[in-house]
Specification:
- The relative contact order is 0.11.
- It is built from 23 helices and 26 strands.
- A hairpin with a 5-residue loop joins strand 10 (240-242) and strand 11 (248-250).
- It has 773 residues and is α+β, with helices and mostly antiparallel strands.
- Among the domains are: 2-28 and 353-492, Multidrug efflux transporter AcrB transmembrane domain (Multidrug efflux transporter AcrB transmembrane fold, Up-down Bundle), CATH 1.20.1640; 39-129, Multidrug efflux transporter AcrB pore domain (Alpha-Beta Plaits, 2-Layer Sandwich), CATH 3.30.70.1430; 189-212 and 225-258 and 693-772, Multidrug efflux transporter AcrB TolC docking domain, DN and DC subdomains (2-Layer Sandwich); 552-673, Alpha-Beta Plaits.
- The strands form eight sheets. Strands 14-13-18-19-17-20 form a six-stranded antiparallel beta sheet, covered by helices on one side.
- The chain is 47% helix and 21% strand.
- Helix 2 crosses helix 11 and helix 13 packs antiparallel against helix 15.
Length: 773
């Protein structure tokens, strides 16, 4: 068989070119990623309950959610967090489950108990969790009023960006969302005998469209619709309110109607100035580099269109994850090709034969390129693990080439023709080649069958190595013998070669003679070197992924419980001021309000590594003490990570039924951990509950007045948080109508001003129960 390929060089070349062309064609089809695509056995459930406190979220939403999810087969652990206006539940399943199926099962369970949730709870969002997920690109909009920019981003930009292939969605931070506010004056309402329920009923009865059927006359058929929606702000102001006693008043007599904005829940800043930030998130099958290239192609045109509407506006890319991915990939590929080049140069230096160097220089990259085809059809991507596989297999490819060449050269030096030497030399070392290949297969193939998340990472590594070494064996018995037969020539001066070899071995002979004369000492030296190489592993740390200096630091800060958005924004400004004192920092972007207004995320862009003397980790260590000067703020600072989340190195769970004792123990644990020098920072995964004012209804009084708890509770919620169940439509867009007390009346004394309708007339809420704090 070997002689067949040696005798037919054209056939051999065409056979090899087939695989090379397939490999070259496959390479552009392979996505470039930082890590392999991994299905983490985790599902997240995001719960949004506007106006609810963490305690309400936990008791009314999270507990029911956990009970429902626990009925899904394969659940390993459920963890949850409650925060202002929402909660977050993470479900970890046993390894080996189909995460897509489990996400569907969780959603079905939650849909089945939807009636048990509070009416104002938004539809739960169930998603697969990927801790390595990150936004592909953050885009800052500047140069115009942030309210206008937010509206433009939500109405125009987000639709254009999500139309790009691979984009899952766009999250908008900053700006204000338009809303129509009806700010009730409880004093005027009390004077006219108007309750909150009267206004709510009037809004629901007047602001509606009703499909009324069809009107048929002869051959004509027309749909009939009753149109009663508000067409202007004046329509809302002139809404007639009817009291329980039959009196009528205009809404503007007891409230102020204003075209305004929702309460600010998210904010964004760039280098100390308010902006609007769009975070572009890729789909699970999307490719960050392709999305980034597509965005960079369309953004200039989008910016021009935006500038026609807002003359001084600008669109700036403040982060692009694809840049780091491309840099890491290109650096690794460059190192692989550099290693290959050095190998060829060393081979040339030691063999002093340019013909053998050409053979090795063709055989090795041929195997690598052909291997790309099999990686592609296996669904692999170009990532850290497949590149590591290429680097690992490189040594085997080089060994195979050298063994074959040296075997043939030896026979040629004995007078055999290059063609016969190629065939005979390959036969002589065939067993060694097969042994080398099978050794690698036996070592790396079991990695494909590893369980767990690490197993998913190692699958692409192990299988890629197997592909490459098997291809090496194929080309070792086809391409390499043919090249040996056609490229090598018989040696004319054997004595000169022996002299050169003898000269090159003179430096090694004394070491060789000493080892032969003192075998036990040689073994002892080798053993000592082996032990010394193991000892440093005691001090070498270990981690799931290596940390890389990507000129970026992530900061997560959390304001105290019960902090408003304004307070969180003030804290962000203080942190920005602290960061401005470091010369290594180039830019700072801030996002406020993700999963609660107390949460602050900061992205610190550093000057390039070539322009600074210290690493990103050392800068992070310098930053933390300075940021910690801001009081009552929990801070995490991490360098060398690309994902949006700062993942803790260690998580401690403190459980117990007594909330007071649990909080006390948690404080003690945090204080103890903060005393350990090696620990950078300790933060709570879930914020401590803040102070809470509670209204406790008196059942006897409620019965006396004939008022239900739901009626009183909804009235209090409407007065304080607001009722946004009704919409105002304009130019094809819907905007919420928020009914609430005017801000001056939102005080601790407001319970006297919240009047409830009863069959005996109006009664203040304060008369129906007691207030606790």
């Amino acid at each position: 068989m070997i002689r067949f390929f040696v005798k037919r060089p054209i056939t051999t070349i065409m056979f090899v070119l087939l695989w090379v062309v397939l490999g070259i064609a496959a390479f552009p089809n392979m996505n470039i990623e930082r890590t392999p695509a991994v299905d983490f056995p985790m599902v997240t459930t995001t719960l949004i309950y506007p106006g609810a406190s963490p305690a309400e979220i936990e008791s009314q939403v999270i507990t029911k959610t956990e009970d429902a999810i626990s009925q899904v087969a394969g659940v390993k652990k459920i963890t949850s967090q409650a925060f202002e206006n929402g909660g977050f539940v993470m479900t970890e399943f046993n390894l080996g489950v189909n995460v897509n199926d489990k996400a569907s099962e969780v959603k079905a369970k939650l849909d089945s108990i939807q009636s048990e949730f509070p009416d104002d709870l938004k539809q739960p969002v169930v998603e697969k969790l990927n801790p390595l997920q990150e936004s592909v690109m953050d885009i800052a909009l500047t140069g115009a009023d942030v309210r206008d920019l937010e509206f433009y981003a939500d109405d125009i930009l987000s639709n254009k960006i999500t139309a790009i292939k691979g984009v899952a969605g766009v999250t908008i931070f900053g700006g204000e969302k338009r809303a129509i506010r009806i700010m009730m004056n409880p004093e005027l309402m009390a004077a006219r005998g108007v309750s909150i329920t009267d206004i709510v009923s009037a809004l629901g009865a007047h602001n509606l469209n009703v499909p009324s059927g069809k009107l048929e006359q002869g051959t004509d058929s027309n749909n009939v619709r009753f149109i009663g929606e508000f067409k202007s702000i004046k329509d809302i102001e002139n809404l007639r309110i009817t009291t329980g006693e039959g009196q009528n008043f205009l809404l503007r007599e007891i409230a102020t109607v204003k075209d305004s904005a929702r309460d600010i829940e998210t904010g964004a800043r760039l280098d100390g100035k308010p902006v609007v930030i769009l975070s572009v998130v890729k789909a699970s099958d999307g490719n960050a580099i392709k999305i980034s290239k597509a965005l960079r192609t369309v953004l200039p045109k989008i910016e021009q269109e935006m500038q026609l509407k807002f003359a001084n506006s600008h669109m700036d890319i403040i982060s692009d994850s694809s840049i780091a991915i491309e840099q890491e990939t290109n650096n690794t590929l460059r190192n692989i090709w550099l290693g290959l080049a050095l190998t060829i140069i060393i081979l040339l230096v030691f063999t002093r034969n340019w013909r053998t160097t050409i053979i090795a220089g063709i055989m090795i990259p041929t195997s690598l390129i052909a291997g790309i085809f099999f990686m592609d059809i296996s669904g692999f991507t170009i990532n850290a693990m497949t590149l590591l596989a290429i680097a690992t297999a490189l040594g085997t490819l080089i060994t195979d080439a050298i063994i074959l060449i040296e075997s043939a050269l030896g026979l040629i030096e004995q007078g055999m023709s290059p063609e016969d030497a190629a065939v005979e030399g390959t036969k002589r070392v065939a067993v060694r080649i097969f042994a080398t290949i099978l050794t690698h297969v036996v070592v790396f193939l079991p990695l494909v069958f590893m369980d767990g998340i690490v197993g998913q990472f190692m699958k692409q590594f192990g299988l890629s190595v197997v592909y490459l070494v098997l291809l090496s064996s194929v080309f070792s018995f086809t391409l390499t013998p043919m090249m040996i037969a056609k490229i090598l020539r018989a040696r004319q001066n054997k004595k000169d070669k022996l002299k050169k070899q003898e000269k090159s071995l003179q430096w090694y002979r004394p070491f060789y003679n000493w080892q032969i004369s003192h075998p036990w000492r040689a073994v002892g030296v080798a053993l000592i070197i082996f032990i010394l190489s193991i000892i440093p592993m005691i001090w070498v740390g270990n981690e799931f992924q290596p940390s890389v200096d990507i000129d970026e630091i992530k900061i997560i800060a959390r304001a105290p419980a019960n902090s408003s958005f304004i307070q969180s924004e003030q804290i962000a400004k203080q942190l920005e001021e602290k960061l401005s004192q470091f010369s290594e920092i180039k830019s700072v972007s801030v996002k406020i309000g993700e999963r609660g207004v107390q949460n602050i995320k900061m992205r610190v862009e550093l000057i390039p590594r070539s322009e600074r003397n210290i690493s990103d980790k050392l800068i992070a260590q310098k930053i933390l003490p300075k940021l910690s000067e801001v009081p009552d703020v929990e801070i995490q600072v991490r360098a060398g990570i690309s994902s949006d989340s700062v993942v803790a190195d260690m998580v401690l769970n403190i459980s117990g039924d007594d909330d007071i004792k649990r909080e006390a123990y948690t404080d003690q644990v945090i204080q103890a951990l903060n005393q350990i020098p090696e620990i950078q920072s300790v933060v709570r995964a879930q914020q401590s509950p803040g102070d809470e004012i509670r209204f406790i209804p008196d059942n006897e009084k409620m019965s006396f007045w004939g008022i239900k708890n739901a009626t009183a509770g909804i009235a209090l919620r409407t007065a304080l948080f607001g009722n946004d169940n009704y919409k105002f439509k304009e130019a094809g867009k819907e905007y919420p109508i928020i009914l609430e007390f005017a801000k001056p009346f939102k005080t601790n004394e407001m319970f006297d001003s919240v009047f409830i309708s009863s069959y005996k007339g109006l009664v203040p809420l304060s008369e129906l129960g007691k207030i606790e704090q």
